[in-house]
Amino acid sequence: MTAKTASIQRKPRNKITYTLPTSQYKEKYSRFCTHLRRNWINVIFHEKVAEILENHCEHQDAEEYITDEISPVGSEKQVNIKLKTKDLLGFVKSSTGAGSEWALQWTLVSSIALFEAFVNDIAELVYLSDPKRFLLPESTEPPSIKLELLLESDSKQEAIEKYIEQKLIAIFYGDPSHVFVKYGKKGDVKDGALKLETGNYLNNKCHDELKLYVEMTKRRNVIVHNAGIINSRYINEVPVNYPNKLQLDHKVKVDRGYLFQNIKSLYLLARFYTIKATHTAYKTGEKNKDDELLMKLEKEFR
After folding, report:
1. Is residue 65 part of a domain?
2. What CA–CA distances, in Å, run from 209 to 35, 62, 63, 157?
3. Higher pLDDT, 157 or 287
4. Which bin fits 5, alpha (ψ -120 to 50), beta or left (φ > 0)?
5. In this structure, which of 47, 81, 196, 225 has its CB flanked by the most CB atoms within 10 Å?
């Protein structure tokens, strides 16, 4: 055998390969990205509908009815909804109708809801992958599960799943900035409330996106709970140096650029959160192997 042939046949040394059961993580991540993209498509759709209607008004009879449907709301005189081309165009383009600002606001609300549900799903997968590892060390006190929860469950697995559900609900009722990362008074970075070792990783990969996430969730709360008027709670909970911060008593504005920026941020947060959560679930504790695993996951989740 020649030296050349031997060099071709020689196998790389210390080659580490992984075959991990990550299909569930990939499936949830892919589904989330699809739905988030559809939310942005919804914005484009409204813009195109307005454009089509405007062209229709210019070339067709403006008195033509586009829709004649029964209404679930209104007096006897408002049983039917009758919209002409011109009326529907005005509705789509108005700030209080299904047009620009209304559609943008509720696309923001929907996108954040999708993201939070996705974060819950991934966290649940990690916790269930090894409940003893992820649930027992979460406090210095002995872990306790309410007797009621045990009695309502048909199996140990069901009880664990209910416990995880309650844990995640409690986490998301808190400060969104603490879900993934906690910052100390001196600026030090700690792991977030999910306890999935995402702190340093997300701070390095998504520092700006984390700030945007805090502001957008507070703005979402104002839209949903305060008729879109900025209140003192928003002012107190969004730090002064955070991007896009609004002023007290101002009406919430969501324009196309703001929404695009925030949907992009949710996508990047979801990507790197999934990578690190999956890495946390399957890491071995051996630095070389775990570093290679992280690189592999960063290529897989795009």
Report:
1. yes
2. 19, 46, 48, 36
3. 287
4. alpha
5. 196
Domain that holds residue 88: 21-285
Query: Pick from 222, 35, 45, 24: which is nearest to 116 by CA?
Result: 35
Categorize the per-residue pLDDT at 175 as very low, low, confident or very high, splitting at 50, 70 and 90. confident
Backbone angles phi, psi at 39, to 5 degrees: -60, -40
pTM for the model stands at 0.81
Tokens 């403006």 sit on residue? 62
Does 151 map to a domain?
A: yes
Around Cβ 171, how many Cβ atoms within 10 Å?
Answer: 19
Q: What is the pLDDT of residues 75-113, one digit of tens each?
A: 877 788 877 777 777 777 665 554 577 789 999 999 999
User: Rounded to 5, what percent of the chain is helix, strand, coil?
Assistant: 65, 5, 30
Tally of domains within the chain? 1
Residues 273 and 122 sit within 8 Å (Cβ to Cβ)? yes
pLDDT at 234 over 80: yes
CA-based nearest residue to 113, from 36, 20, 196: 36
Give percent of the chain above pLDDT 70.
Answer: 83
* Residue 194 and residue 123 in contact, taking contact as beta carbons nearer than 8 Å: yes
Query: Is the Cβ–Cβ distance between 202 and 274 less than 8 Å?
Result: no
| DSSP string of 165-187, one letter each residue | HHHHHHHHTS-THHHHEEE-TTS
**Do strands 80-84 and 189-191 pair parallel, antiparallel, or not at all (unpaired)?**
unpaired
Q: Return the H-helix or E-strand segment holding 93.
A: helix 85-93
**Among 160, 269, 293, CA closest to 205:** 269
291 pLDDT more than 90: yes
Asked, for residue 7, whether it belongs to a domain, the answer is no
Six-digit token string for 94: 């108005």
- 14 domain-assigned: no
